[in-house]
Amino acid sequence: MTSTIHIIDDEESIRDALAFLFASRGLPAQGWPSGEAFLEALPGQDCGCVVLDVRMEGLSGPEVFDRLRAMGWKAPVIFLTGHADVPVAVQTLKAGAFDFVEKPFNDNQLVDLVVKAIAMHENQRVLIGHRQDLQRRIQTLSNREAEVMRLMLQGNLNKQIAHALGIAMRTVEVHRSRVLEKMGVRNTTELVVLLAELDAS
Prior knowledge:
- The structure is a single chain.
- The chain is an alpha/beta fold and 201 residues long.
- The chain folds into two domains: 4-124, 3-Layer(aba) Sandwich (Rossmann fold); 140-200, Arc Repressor Mutant, subunit A (Orthogonal Bundle).
- Helix content is 59%, strand content 12%.
- The protein contains nine helices and five strands, in the order βαβαβαβαβααααα.
- The protein has helices spanning 12-24, 35-41, 61-70, 86-94, 107-139, 143-153, 158-165, 169-183, 188-200, and strands at 4-8, 29-32, 47-53, 77-81, 99-102.
- Strands 2-1-3-4-5 form a five-stranded parallel sheet, with helices on both faces.
- Strand 4, helix 4 (86-94) and strand 5 form a beta-alpha-beta unit.
- Helix 5 (107-139) crosses helix 9, helix 6 (143-153) packs across helix 8 (169-183) and helix 7 (158-165) packs across helix 8 (169-183).
């Protein structure tokens, strides 16, 4: 999926200049004349990053950011700010903005920052997808298989699991095999590592 940079600024010259700057580095960009226009369209799936001006006619940058946060927006937001707006920008950082760039900005530094933001966002999407995949695998386990897996993770041997659950050792072996197969691992060690990744993500 191609990540698009969305530029929200009520000054057409700035939107065009930024779009040209990003395009010159091979980064697709789209400009929006107001926060209202962006919020109405809300292009979420292809959004790699939002470059948002602090002061605009209509909704201000922080107001747009607050509305995006209320919607559960995940893509990084970088604010463009004048010197007088730095305290506002600092507040947006505390609220979850990726960064802010003071005008006049250095073209290369801005592009580098946007590239970094997009890369971090893509990595987060991959991690979220990985976590969702693991959760789907866990949900395919039957109640008994989930019980066996819990005891496997505690380091119990088949005999101990059979005793704990009051079932035959052969039945434990069948359940253990199904657990490993459904979770996509070869042994208990790999299962431990896999679920540790889930806890850490």
